[in-house]
Specification:
Blueprint: E1 4-10, H1 14-25, E2 30-33, E3 51-52, E4 77-78, H2 84-92, H3 102-120, E5 125-127, H4 129-132, E6 133-136, E7 139-142, E8 148-150, H5 153-167, E9 171-173, E10 178-183, E11 189-194, E12 199-207, H6 216-222, E13 231-232, H7 241-248, E14 253-254, E15 260-266, H8 279-282, E16 294-297, H9 315-323, E17 330-335, E18 354-356, H10 359-365, H11 371-383, E19 401-403, E20 406-408, E21 420-432, E22 435-436, E23 443-445, E24 451-457, H12 474-492
Parallel strand pairs: 1-2, 1-12, 2-9, 4-7, 12-24, 13-21
Antiparallel strand pairs: 3-8, 5-8, 6-7, 10-11, 11-12, 14-22, 15-21, 16-17, 17-21, 18-21, 19-20, 23-24
């Protein structure tokens, strides 16, 4: 008879590793199984910029988290505050008027303590200087409630969490693909079966293997037909295996299955963000500086209010909006006034764009774009720009414009300073919102609301965290919060 583990965790991303750290802390014997090899392990975590949203009262609350407190820029930084009330309000703004779910309340209330817990295990963070701040009057002003990212971004987060997990005695097996859950006759989960046929026994199993974003059939069935051809921003391994296994046991389907995190991405990116380049570079296919210019569909029309809110609160929705356009394509148009403000991915060596000194010439270079209609849109936009209001990317500046009845509410500058650039984009799905219902101990619940004995879930598999949208950086925090709870709950399962 093989070894019986206290806890088996399926997956190896941020949520899985937080579950593993928490379980090992409590003295459990923990095995993590990952179907990818060592290089491809880590799920979607490695594809992120490592940003984590959490509540804090003052700048001093950030100090225990920082890798380099002696950075001279910190003295000039205005981090503001991001209270639990503000975090809750940001989540609530995507709920279509519904109150915060239990899962959202847990995310808000436990966000800061979970970051401190990670810091206690050697996970360190840096201010997001390049994407979340602008310099104004000698101060570095952070905006949008998102201030810190893991050192070396998503790759660094994975590396630091894996180091902490293994330091505590946790074991991980790569190239180890999950197939199904083992149960007793009474429905208690007692282990897993691998695709190889091997069986692994456990007192508890934690499903931490992501959503269904890499499964085109499930995308089409659960999100809609237009999602079948969507680019996938993250790992190719999140194919819904854990969700299908849980649902097969009667787990309660829960959450917003019509929604997902979808980001404007380079139209020419390869599937899964180009697996042939280093993980640290794959994030550079996103294109999220649209608030500094305008987005046009192939008909030459704008289709979103690019400046309705800070980018943190819109990019996960605007990727979906792009997918709903003709050809699932759009063009981001900028002039030279904002080139220096565009995020690093716009200078990425594989970034595709057209450039010209004349706007008509630029639009004529954009394959598939109705250049005549597009030029008319830009002329109307330019003529309606409120030139008397100063452009200020550190606040919602009220500098607006309008074309065909559609406002750009903030940061609207006339596109009139050559050279001009046009970046073709599509929508890239990052993760899905629908999943399973869990208890306060992260136990998976059945249709009647009862815990399925021995089964726990965290990360993308937890439904109810995100509804109609997503405040940037809260996904990784959610993974950490519910991962920690799942690890604690799974170890407690030994004593039930």
């Amino acid at each position: 008879m093989g070894k019986r583990w206290d806890v088996v965790i399926i997956g190896s991303g941020n949520a899985a590793l937080c579950a593993g750290i928490a379980a090992c802390e409590l003295g459990a014997d923990v095995l993590m199984i990952e179907k990818a090899d060592r290089d491809m392990a880590g799920g979607n975590t490695k594809y992120t910029a490592g940003a984590m949203r959490f509540s804090y009262e003052t700048s001093e609350d950030l100090h225990p988290l920082l890798a380099r407190l002696d950075d001279p820029r910190i003295a000039r930084a205005d981090f503001g505050s991001y209270t639990q009330e503000k975090f809750a309000a940001d989540l609530s703004s995507f709920n279509d008027g519904a109150p915060l779910s239990q899962e959202q309340q847990v995310l808000v209330s436990k966000s800061y303590e979970t970051l401190l817990w990670l810091a206690g295990h050697g996970v360190t963070f840096n201010p997001i200087w390049s994407r979340q701040s602008f310099e104004k009057d000698g101060q570095i002003i952070f905006w949008g409630g998102l201030t810190l990212a893991a050192e070396n971004e998503g790759v660094g987060l994975f590396d630091m969490e894996l180091t902490a997990y293994e330091k505590l005695g946790g074991i991980i097996r790569y190239n180890c693909a999950f197939q199904s859950l083992k149960t007793r006759d009474d429905g208690t989960v007692i282990g897993v079966t691998l695709t190889s046929g091997e069986e692994i026994d456990a007192n508890s199993v934690i499903l931490a293997c992501g959503g269904f974003e890499s499964n085109p059939d499930l995308r089409a069935n659960l999100l809609g037909a237009e999602w079948r051809g969507a680019k996938v921003r993250g790992t190719p391994h999140n194919t819904g295996d854990g969700l299908l296994a849980a649902w097969a046991l009667g787990a309660q389907r829960y959450g917003r299955f019509s929604g997902c995190h979808a980001t404007p991405m380079d139209y020419f990116m390869k599937d899964f963000g180009n697996l042939n380049i280093p993980h640290s570079e794959r994030k550079n296919y996103r294109k999220i500086s649209y608030f500094l210019g305008v987005m046009l569909n192939e008909n030459g029309a704008r289709f979103v209010d690019e400046g309705i809110d800070f980018r943190n609160y819109t990019y996960a929705q605007f990727g979906q909006a792009v997918l709903q356009q003709p050809g699932q394509k759009a063009w981001q148009i900028f002039d030279s006034k904002v080139f220096d403000l565009l995020y690093e991915e716009y200078q990425f060596y594989d970034a595709r764009y057209e450039e010209a000194d004349n706007i008509s010439e630029l639009l004529g270079k954009c394959n598939g774009l109705n250049a005549v209609a597009a030029e008319a849109t830009l002329q109307e936009f330019n003529s309606n720009t409120k030139e008397a209001i100063d452009f200020d990317p550190t606040i919602k500046d009220g500098k607006s414009s309008i074309s065909a009845g559609l406002y750009k509410s903030n940061w609207a500058q006339a596109i009139d300073s050559p050279p001009y650039r046009a970046y073709p984009v599509t929508g890239g799905i990052t993760f899905t919102y629908g999943g399973v219902k869990i208890s306060e101990r992260a136990a998976v619940l059945d249709q009647s609301g009862n815990a399925i004995p021995g089964l726990f879930a965290c990360g993308e598999m937890v439904g109810g965290v995100f509804q109609g949208g997503y405040p940037g950086g809260s996904g990784l925090t959610s993974g950490a919060v519910f991962g920690k709870l799942a690890g604690i709950g799974a170890v407690g399962n030994r004593y039930w």
